[in-house]
Design brief:
Helices cover 13% and strands 38% of the residues. The protein is mainly β and 439 residues long. The protein has 6 domains: 27 residues; 73 residues, SH3 Domains (SH3 type barrels, Roll), CATH 2.30.30; 57 residues, Roll (SH3 type barrels); 68 residues, SH3 Domains (SH3 type barrels, Roll), CATH 2.30.30; 60 residues, SH3 Domains (SH3 type barrels), CATH 2.30.30; 114 residues, no CATH class. The strands form 9 sheets. A 6-stranded antiparallel sheet has the order 29-30-34-31-32-33. Strands 8, 9, 12, 13 and 14 form a 5-stranded antiparallel sheet that branches.
Length: 439
Amino acid sequence: MKRALVVMRAALAWTVLTSSLITTGVLLAPSADAATATYTANTSVNVRSGPSTSKTILTQLQDGQTVLATGAVSGSWLPIRYDNTTAYVWASYLDKDAKAASVVLTGPSGRRTAQENVNVRANADLDADITTILTKGTKVSVTGYSSGVFAQVSVNGKTGWIHAQFLTSSTDTSPQPVATYTTTLKMALRSSASLAATNQSTLAVGTTVESTGVHSGSYTQVVVSEKVGWVITGYLDAANGTDARYVLPTATGLRYVTPSSLPVLASASSSAATVATLSSGMKIAITGTTKSSYSQMIWDGALAWVATASLSTTKPVTDLGSSSLNKLEPNGKAAVLEVRAHFPKITTIYGWRSSSAYSSDHPNGRAIDIMIPSYKSNKALGDEIAQYFIDNGKRLHVTYILWQQRSYTLTRGSWKKMEDRGSDTQNHMNHVHVSFEPS
């Protein structure tokens, strides 16, 4: 009798909880297949606010990321759930999953706030073990991934799951500052860690900035008046009392890389480990310290070495023969020179263009299209070029390659079939597309 009473109470409690969640819109009744299907990106592709290339880019999916559809494909666009609204992705760059995925990307990573005391569970299940309890008002890092009514979070370096009903719906995506600095040089606040990136504003000497502790090559990410950007590392004077981990090396000058390929070394020796490889035209900060034939430079917020003879105080002029190629970032320009040197049969290469329906790589100057002459009978040449960029991908800062209706991502390390996009150009049958990291 007692056992029956306990079971009855448990069932009643679950009924009340479920009814409450349905009322608040957290638990939804099963919907049509079109609204429960998941799709996985087969390359990088923009997520837009509406079904048009003129609409705002909300984020960019990367190869292998999975999203939840909210309806059927219409006019080549798939509606998906993203950041509590409906967003749109060009359907040709997605593959429908044979079985709906349980974990999908539904928003940006960032921070959300607990609205009540809430359990963090080991898995996305109300019966899963409770790993910790967050008190009301606690900010928690969210990854952007969801599973049903649960949001994935990161607590103390470990991932867990929280019922999304108990978190604020909006995500704070602004970077978290870790230290305060004063600029010691007039600098451009760039939109990304690249000399070619848009200058958002110019910072005067003595400007107070906050750093997120994130570095990329010669740049440090900072926050100025709620605006996030990148400045050259080496000209940021840490405030008194700053943790030693965030006190940055000091630069004495700036130099340009002159050769098409320059190794960044861990120490001042030709036998030292290569930390990175720089392309012609990249701008770096030096400390003024030299040893033998090497100069000390600042890279990723730390110190490294490069050959002194490969540096110049003036930017090298590289005319690649067209405005499309001359607007490429240094990594793209270096790749064009390599193609011309190793594949003389290639006579046409395209680079920058003002817009793209699929990704931002061409408009950002981070992609090239290598046109294959007589491509229908010359597939072997395209295969050779694609393999060259795979073999030299790390050195050339390649992110992915598209060729013959397939995509190859350096992080994945294998080819993946792509959907038919309708023409030889869209299917990359007549050219090899190569995208690069920012430079």
